[in-house]
Amino acid sequence: MPPLRVEDVTVRFGGLTAVSDLSLHAEPGTITALIGPNGAGKTTTFNACTGVVKTSSGRVWLGDQRLDKMGTPARAAAGLGRTFQRMELFDSMTVSQNVAMGPESVFSSRHPWGQFFAPASEKKEIARRTRSALARCGLEASAGRRVRDLSTGQRRLVELARAIASPFRFLLLDEPSSGLDVHETEEFGQVLLSHVAETGIGVLLVEHDMALIADVSTEVYVLDFGQLIWSGHTPDAMTSEVVRAAYLGGEIAQEVLHA
Amino acid sequence: MNAAIHALKTDGFSGLSRKLGYTGWWLVAAALVVLLGTPVAAGRDLMPFVFAGVADGAIYSMAALGLVLTFKTSGIFNFAIGAQAAASAYVFYSFRMDAGLPWPVAFVLALLLVGIGGAFLLERMAYWLEEAPAIMKVVATIGLIVLLQSLLTGIYGTPTLQFPPFLSQKTVDIAGSTVLASQIIVTVLALAATIALTLFFKRSKVGAAMQALVDDPELLASQGTSPAVIRRYAWAIGSCFVSMSGMLIAPILGIDINLMLLLYITAFGAAALGAFDNLVVTFIAAIGIGIATNVLSIELAKIDSSFVSRLYTQVPFIALVAALLLVPKARLVERGGKRVRKLPPIHQLSPRVTVGLAVVTLAVFAAVPHVVPSVDLNQFTVGIGFAVVLVSLALLLWSSGQISLCHMAFAAIGAAAFSHAQSHGVPWIGCLLLAGLAALPAGAFVAIPSFRLSGVYLAVATFAFGLLAQNLLYPSEWMFGLDDTTPLIRPDWGGLDTKNDQGFYYLALVIAGLMVALVLAVRRSRLGRILQALADSPAALDAHGVRTKVTRLSVFCLSAFIAAIGGVIIGAANSGAGGNASGPFGYFNSLALITVLVFCGRRPVFGPVIAAFLFVVAKIYPPMDSAFMTDYRGVFFGLFALGVALWPGLRMPTLTERGAQRGSRSPVKDRTLQARPAAVEPETSEEKVLVSTR
Questions:
Q1: Mean pLDDT of A90-105
Q2: Considering only CB atoms, which chain A residues are within 8 Å of B552?
Q3: Is there a smaller number of Cβ atoms within 10 Å at the N or the C end of chain A?
């Protein structure tokens, strides 16, 4: 599985610089966290990696494949998968249909005629991947339910199941525990860890839940106002004054430290 | 100017571009056109046409401003502004000509009745459509057009009503050209309205509230400002502008709703160039379209080509299509409520029920020639043709969530291509295939806007294409020609006897069956699943590697192919096809079809079949064949379409109730109730401090 490298990426919206000269390196087989307060540029970084927004400068690499000149579907076909902060599910479909659409979509991009014909071998592979992802995420009992009828937590799991069922080589997960309760978040962390351990895939995780970050990630990158202000090992992040200041504001952090 | 030069020096062209902004660029372009164009126009004796164009553009700009204002504040793109303007003109006519009232009194009464009264109804409609999906917003306003067109032609008849001028007809000499005082009055009025509205949005509290209304009505309500009142103001101003525009144009063009529906595309084009947001650019664009139309009417008349000499009439449509293709996508944001109610999913019938229904339907269709009088049979064949067109529209609409308001144009292209192929001696089946293939470029062309537009904007783009096809392609030699008719000859296959009505009915039934089978096969294929996913979440599909442009292109082309085959059936049933606006291939039928399809439900095949029966066949039987129903059938179609679009909104809780519901389902409340132990523990650990910031 390849690593994800972001080199000197800058994203501007008119006069506003949302991400400035960001570089990061996320290894395969590990979970790397990208954190920061609201508006720090985390989702914009994901959007820049996946081609949803154009970068003003910089490069994005998946292994030795340069992605930043490609469109969004081509990056996904190259193996870069993602989930969304605001969940993007196929609401008219059932859970299993949603999960199956993940690999089916990626396979459809492999041939010019891929959207029109599905070879029997692909059908079998899609079914196998769907079963496996449903089992891993504990969604087998809900497989026949429409996703629009599920709770937020279950919907998050469906989105994760769709991503891990797809033949991606690196995953970007955008606030996957948002809307989950404590129990669901813990379960979510376990699912993620076991998937990474089994497949060796790399994950870049945008998350506000520091408990989850502490549980699953090994490296942390901290963004504030579009700039990288800190990076290092996860345990160090939890005690870093810079990280706390970014989240709480400098004065509040000082008060907390001196209390 | 100094700021612009400074920006150019410091940040280069991109800095200058940012500094000028969209309005700045348009003002610079307008100034250049005036500076460079005036000597040219004066040299070619075109100034009278320029002044006439300014006056025409000023009148349309008022409607465009009304359209932009209401779209900005409610997310409802009022396709019916032409019908509303016509309604005002007709009512004005009644008060002025029939009741003999002085024109100012008649003008104010019509303004109150149609402008303010219409505003009240439209505001309610906008409220009920607040959370509706784009298709329902489109269907509601299209339903309004169908309703008003039927009602007004039923009451006032189809001939154009002549209306004597009511503003001063004195003449003034400007730059050696004679200009009517009425032209100056309307121009000054429109300019003043633009400036006043722009200042109103920027400076007044109500203007700011209108902007806030767009972003978050519930938040606005929580600040003590009633969204309903603000929305009412916006609709009152917008609706009055549209009404005034209709009454001002009446003496120039006469009153004819069908003509006004077409001419008010100028307002659509101007609003599109203003990105459906910018009032100043909308005004400039309307004036520009007015001038271009008037000047080109003279300049192009010198060219010996009927196609080119008619191009001047297409300036508004070309402006609209160009704007939708070229205006930066970031400016074409979807307006309206943030929460959008999703359409209920299409429930798959079990295979047993599907087969049962298919057998019963086939049996009924097979029995038709033996049950109905032979004189009526052809109408059933035409109905089959329309059912095929509707099946293709349903594929686009229900399977992939794409809106098309130009489907009869695809059908017309099919009929015309069939006729041309037949005249070159191609066998009947070959002609049928060529007809379908001929519609593919049109399908691909219409798909292009769908790459960057969706929802209401795509509806506007397809609406423009339908009108462009009607006005530019239909009369060309490639299609129906200036004679407006081409023959479609039924096949002569010896023993099958397909030349007579009964034989051709069965042939049409077989072709329709094949098209239905094609649609069902697509729905069950990978493409069908991708289309369904596309309707739900294009972003998720993109992120999983699907080239959604290919998907959109494929579905538009497939839909156009099937619609073209439907067009051949319609044409061959009638033994010929033409491009008359009131004929089967007229653009108005594209609008009517989508309304009738929506109220027949979200079934991919049975919905279109029932819709075709209601649209084509039912009208030859009582009570639909009565004189009253013939005149007012559109009123019922329009009302049904409005009912279907508005019904979920009518059952929607009030804003206060929704606010309460929103509070009770707030994630903050959930977190408070189910607070994590880490968050409620004393903040002794540095790690816990961060947890509590969630």
A1: 94
A2: none
A3: C
